[in-house]
Amino acid sequence: MPVSRRATGTGGARGARGALDHGDAAVCRVPGPRAAPEKRNGCRADADGAADLQARDAYLAYRRDGGERDTHGGKWAAEIAHLLLAVKTTTANARLAQLAGLPDPPAWLPPFVTALQAVVAGERSASLADAPGLDYSLSAEILLLLDRLAAAGR
Q: pLDDT higher for 44 or 136?
């Protein structure tokens, strides 16, 4: 039976994307853009996306309740927040250029630096946290950075 697309009406950012109907088989929502390209057409990708969002939400709650950042990404996001709050945009850009220029960076670093560079350039959209390549903790750190800047009117 051919695969057809139909709306789910489940609401939310992920639910609004629609569903795949596999005839008598299980119906799976279309995964969001954060899913790995090879997993975008199946239930596993949707489960991975939902798990990522749950992990991000749990980590956000932990951090907002005073939990310590335990990743390099969290420390770098805090450093960028400190620099932006002190209106040291040039220094923030220089620090990110250093990170971007690291030889053989881990796979997560380039998308994280790109998101931080967008924040330094003035972008304040929460969609920056949905960039492909960001894990739950990096995504949460971007959201926390945006929250901190918004609270300070920056």
A: 136
